[in-house]
Amino acid sequence: MNPKTDELDVTIDPENAERGGTSPPDARGFRPPAATAAPASTPGPAGNEVGRVELKDLSAFYGSNHAVRGIDVTFEPNRVTAIIGPSGCGKSTMVRCVNRMHEEIPGARSEGQILLDGIDLKGPRVDVVAVRRAVGMVFQKPNPFPTMSVYDNVAAGLKLTGAPRKTIEAKVEDALKGAGLWDEVSDRLDSPGMGLSGGQQQRLCIARALAVDPEVLLMDEPCSSLDPIATLRIEELISQLKERVTIAIVTHNMQQAARVADTTAFMLNGDLVEVASTDKIFTNPDDERTEQYVSGKFG
Amino acid sequence: MEAASTPANHPLLQGPPNLKRRRRVNRALEVVAWVSAVVAVAALFIVVASVFVKGVGALNLDFLTQGQVAFGPGGGIGNALVGTGIIVLLAAAMAIPIGVLVALYTSEFAKSRSASAIRYVLDILNGVPTIITGLFVVVLIVKPQGHQSGFAGAVGLAIVMLPLVARSTQEVLALVPSSVKEAGLALGVSRWRTIVSVIVPTAFGGILTASLVAVARAAGETAPLLLACSIFPTTTVTDPSQAMANIPIVIFQYSESPDPSKHTQAWAAALILILFVLLLSSIARVFSARVKKRLEGTR
User: Fold this and answer.
1) Contact yes or no for A48/A17 (Cβ under 8 A)
2) What is the pTM (predicted TM-score) of this model?
3) Which residues is A109 bridged to in the sheet?
4) Are B221 and A168 in contact (CB under 8 A)?
5) From CA B98, how far away is CA A209, in angstroms rounded?
6) CB contacts < 8 A (A, B)
7) Which distant-in-sequence residues (6+ apart) come within 8 Å of B162 by Cβ?
8) Are A129 and B190 an interchain contact pair (Cβ–Cβ within 8 Å)?
9) What's the confidence (pLDDT) of residue B139?
10) Residue A77: CB partners within 8 Å, gap ≥ 6?
11) Sign of the CA dihedral A11, A14, A19, A23?
12) Average of pLDDT values for A123-135?
């Protein structure tokens, strides 16, 4: 059904590649050995080739509404995958299946497999909490915790899951640096997170997600409520962060996909129409509908 | 001169039909609404002012600290203040935790059908005449125990408070944006931890407001106490298993007394009660304003 073309040229065996990555060994900073050991997360060292997400024949439903129709796609480690498509095509639903946030909605369910480094995230031995520690998420609107300071927002994921106190401070600093926010907030870590600007709040949310050392970061239209300059900052950040996590970004904005993504997937009415390198999608797509969409003929 | 250039039948100059009548109706409605508002404010003002004028004469330190004197002038309501304090605290200790948990259950865990059923039940409970609540307490506690008690009164007041706390807490929890809850869940924080550490703190001011309003209501509630705790000694009782004096019943009894000095004391006791209620309502207002402001920031 899905004309899935142009298999990505990065085909790295996750098991062999675990030790011999390309990024510097301490790129992920303070990851303690097996601190987040959980069935779903395979804590490997230093941003290497862990964090491969494979969706196999994934379908998602809202009640009887079949919103995602059996799609196959892979989010490669150290790559940014953009998911584009018109409103209501199932992009957000698809990424929300990956961290199992989809099933939080009453009546919603999914079928098919979601593998993270070969482990089925919907398997019976995998706890949903462990999935969400391994797969972070950034939402459409910045949503810092309204009662918490900048520091506490970033520390929240660690504190609320009982991480040892000593490691938290270093991790918060590392996460804020990772999100490109440290220089702006290091002197006001105790002020409320809600007091930051919209763009800063969104980077705070990115820092909050990074602090628990996820392998994958899902971004659901992270810039849709931000001004162009704040958007640019986030886009720059995404390019840096792919050294650290696998990134899947849902976006309405095709220019954004073209700027940040290595791979682009085009969805339409719940189907995955085409997935290929971003260059190919925007210059020479195989499918006529992709061509029409990226050239602005519909959507 | 002007008429020459502007046609006299231009629609702008005609005005809508019945313009005069419509203006009159508008004006009349405005006046009626204004008068209604004045009546509402005046009712409160007249009650407070008359209680103040008639009661302030009997108000002094002895009145607040001394126990009751059965006949003639002198004595105070110290025993009733202690009694009301204990009964209301007991009632609050029962009603607030249960009310908050009910609200958390309906807004976070229950399916939408059972949630609306629970809301309906709470609304009915809120509408039950308090004299019937009193009868229920008589059957449940006073009869088996063989005598009235502060505890029985507290149970009666708790039943009055429960739907108030639960319903207003539900409303505050509904104001907490779902994005905040999603942020917690997506961070790999368990459901109950998200509720305890993120949702409840965000809504805390509102929960406090709901509790204060319920306490203010319970402090003046008379009917359940009439049946559950109205035959009490004139001395201070601190053991809630015994009947203990309380302000509403003292006001009731003194106002029926043939002794005019007791009438003045009834007004003074009423003044104390009304000041307490006004104070609690004002504090509640401050908190609710604060929580509204915070929650609006997240939208």
Assistant:
1) yes
2) 0.77
3) A61
4) no
5) 34
6) 80
7) B95, B98, B99, B102, B122, B125
8) yes
9) 96
10) A12, A14, A48, A49, A50, A51, A52, A246
11) positive
12) 91
